[in-house]
């Protein structure tokens, strides 16, 4: 599919163009730095497309670097899922994946350098005391009594921290910057803390771990990153980023640029909240097709190109905003409209008996796979005396707007004949259980010879040859556009976000492969779910044929 523009432009690309043309850099190096503490979501896709997209277009490099300084919350399963998701999106990182923990020795060395320069000290103040001394947005902080400890003593304390001689929370290493700074992050931030935690990469080597702000900029510099792109909440932290780089002996000066996070309506994009949805079993797992995770969106039937297209369409700015779900859906709908072969599937079957059709006959009809693309060829669809149609496609009485089957009226069966409904069976509650019809043998692929106008077309599946299938229909996961703003976001979960139908699909779908996508005519776009087995096909509705997310709903 044609992606919107081959080379988008945005303020970051303009900065890069300038840096290249005035010789500040002669190549571009970016990185995508996830913390392996959850699965990636569609917000991360925005960052991935930005970082890897820039590397691709400028013939530079993009590293995949796990920012792994919080060993307790991290897990190797997350590392693996993140690698899988980035690759699936169609991007290749430069060389092996990297880990901030690869640099723990160097980071430790730079911390020692700061102590030696009188720019860092070990603080034994309690957490509470530290908070008090920090001040507020309107009041400056106060200096810690440990701020003027000698370099020698600080070196000795820091070494003891490393040796495991201090307890967690007993002390921490702080950068000595400015307790009166208007940027809170510059008020002597903690750069190392004691944590007796096993690390998925470094095992039990360390019992002190560097803080994110100290680690990130140094990792960027070690890797020779030219443009370090992150989201707006790190805007203030840029001061600290630059301070660390200026005050250590390293010859690379990466620059940080911030862009706005993706926010998407009717979902949540915070790993903490997504973990809660999984842990509390509000969804079936990280890859539940209602989840905004890349794994969930993939299982829902989105393609990498549709996600990349979405990231192009939303663009990159510094403005915070909320993107409508319809925008995401339009990307996959536009793509599948071109690429998905058409099939017939009945979600709520109603039996239709063609009384003037021979009992034992099976006619093999030829149906196009795509109405506008002959190159997609045709498939065989068996037609028999008994078929299923959609329950909602039949009414005993209806006005002219109802262009489907009505008692004593005609309709065209898609790819087949015109039939007229003559009578019905009903059950004790009055519900129609079977519709009896007659078909017009002369109408296979042609209008009735006598000029009768038959406007409606409905889909159907042979009762004898059709295959039972479980069809999962998804709706928005939340009832409110911004669930994150609710006091308890789980209370806003839409109880109807998943509806399961026992449907019947045309037999050609028996061979459908996992994840392959189809348009079920008149119903929507569907893909084969991984829960499918020899006994039971399972389909996920990726998206309906039209935008159903309009605000009026
Ligand atoms: P979360 O708030 O979901 O936990 P995070 O920012 O802590 O996300 P990281 O693993 O640290 O998650 O993110 C890796 C990269 O992805 C960072 O550069 C981050 O800025 C970016 N990112 C995370 N969420 C979004 C989002 N919603 N939109 C755009 N970029 C994002
Ligand atoms: Mg983070």
Structure, explained:
The chain is of the alpha/beta class. It folds into three domains: 11-259, HUPs (Rossmann fold); 271-341 and 469-552, Ribosomal Protein L25, Chain P (Beta Barrel), CATH 2.40.240.10; 345-459, Beta Barrel (Ribosomal Protein L25, Chain P). 25% of the residues lie in helices and 23% in strands. The chain contains twelve helices and 27 strands. A seven-stranded mixed beta sheet has the order 10-25-26-27-23-24-11, with helices on one face. Helix 2 (42-57) crosses helix 11 and helix 7 packs across helix 8. It is elongated, with a radius of gyration of 31 Å. 40% of the residues are buried. The site of adenosine-5'-triphosphate has 14 residues, from helix 2 and strand 8.
Give the helix/strand class.
alpha/beta
Number of strands: 27
List all distinct small molecules, including ions and cofactors, that are bound in this structure: adenosine-5'-triphosphate, magnesium ion
- Chain-averaged pLDDT: 96
> Which descriptor suits the 3D outline?
elongated
Number of helical runs?
12
CATH superfamily of the largest domain: HUPs
Tell me what the CATH architecture of the largest domain is.
3-Layer(aba) Sandwich
Number of domains: 3
CATH topology of the largest domain: Rossmann fold
Q: Largest sheet, order of strands side by side?
A: 10-25-26-27-23-24-11
- Given this structure, which CATH class of the largest domain is correct? Alpha Beta
Strand % is 15-25%
Uncertain runs with pLDDT below 50, 5 residues or more?
none
The helix fraction, in percent, is: 10-25%
End-to-end Cα distance, whole Å, is: 31 Å
Query: Mind describing the biggest β-sheet?
Result: 7 strands, mixed
Radius of gyration: 31 Å
